[in-house]
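Cont'd.
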Amino acid sequence: MANSIMDPTDDFVRFPLTGRFLAGRLRHDMSEAEKQKLESLVTETRTLIDGELLVRRGDPCVNTTMLIDGFMLRTLENSERRHAVSFHVPGDFVDLHSFPLGRLDHNIECVGAARVGFVPHALIQEIVNEHPHLARLFWFSTLLDAAMHREWIMTLGQLPVPKRIAHVFAEIWARLDMVGRAFVDGFQTPLRQIDIADMCGATPVHVNRALMQLRKDGIADFRRGEVRVANRAVLESFAEFDPTYLYGSHAEAPVTLRQATR
Amino acid sequence: MANSIMDPTDDFVRFPLTGRFLAGRLRHDMSEAEKQKLESLVTETRTLIDGELLVRRGDPCVNTTMLIDGFMLRTLENSERRHAVSFHVPGDFVDLHSFPLGRLDHNIECVGAARVGFVPHALIQEIVNEHPHLARLFWFSTLLDAAMHREWIMTLGQLPVPKRIAHVFAEIWARLDMVGRAFVDGFQTPLRQIDIADMCGATPVHVNRALMQLRKDGIADFRRGEVRVANRAVLESFAEFDPTYLYGSHAEAPVTLRQATR
DNA sequence: CGCATCCTTGAGGGCCATCAAAATGCGTGG
DNA sequence: CCACGCATTTTGATGGCCCTCAAGGATGCG
């Protein structure tokens, strides 16, 4: 194990650009050299404003983007209406899919201000050619997105809107936790009610009513900019949230990956 | 370009186990050597029966499975109810996600009989270490699943059930087309109405009514075992189906991948 | 302090779920 | 070849979740 004695939050300081990548997942499988290599890939950083489009569906991509700070959505559009298919928190390679795919089938947009770092595809290609273990971690990180997509599919297909919202809250919270950006009793988020509506396949009006219900029932209190939760277990059980699909390190880690570490 | 003059269906004959892998997508980027290498990875084949579970959620995986013939579903379960998050057609690596992830967050089950071929993870690891271009195609194929997941999310979030069903039909048809398994006026499928219900997040009763409506409106005629469509354009426009998310070769191909071919 | 954006509230209607039961199709065995 | 049993499909009636349309209130920024 690479860093079992080290406090994981050290990486947030030592690697200000990429220190949250796979934190709480397989980051403990990264060697010191790999962490440094990854940090060195970021050639340029930029600050984006609320609503800015980082990638537009179909555009050819030559960079991949590490989200350093902020919150982003992957969105699709269909007949005049936007739908958010997933979100991103600091430490995510928000558009790494574009490397194997060449172009993206969706938009990536900011919610609130964000700071990002760019990694040219050519450098990713180098990693693939010369650092198979790191490449496999990149692959892993894109498949986390796929696993989260699957959970969203089930959520949309089976749960009524109040539970979908609660599920979204539970997932955001769990993911922020892994990258050290949550509170004990909730989290901050730049999401507006209309964003939640687009994530849940519901109308803003209905989301508003559902949020009031969640507040009244003591499940979650969403206000502009933050979510407060009195009892996390209540939220998660109401949402039927089971975090195993996030592949956190507390769950069983991939056996073969561990073997391959060194 | 590796095989621009060759009829793609030749591969179906020359490589009976893996000849449909990425057919209609990036298979034209595979060199002859890569195709042979891939074919050689399959160490064992098996025939599965209707309803058989190939992989159970959470089980550790040491193999990856090529679907040679048949039809499979990825399913999740939530509070007593099954939900299908995607399906597979011949040529798909149905559980390649398990290689980077180590275990799967979902079940993979047969609908109808299926023939599959197994590839040990150890051989995939060899490919990753020594054949970066082929490895990148593997990565690509798993991200196709992610792209399809995203489309399903939007479909579930935005379309009423009749259009969801039509969308599922359109996707199945398009994917079977790419692997040479469709008819000019439709396709065969072992799906039952209850499977369609689980794919669309609806009840079997409602699916039944929606199917009758689609039949009456001349959009699609589903009967046990097959779907017949009078006018494909009508089906696809009704379903708001845009096949770009399938990354077929007719669409713009990934630029960087082409450069990396040789 | 004015305007834009976001949130909140109300009324009416449609899609889809639930419950219940009948009909059809299909493989099996008498 | 027909009878039987089971899975699947079809049909009917009722109700709830969530949508649509509409307008009023709050919040924040220049």
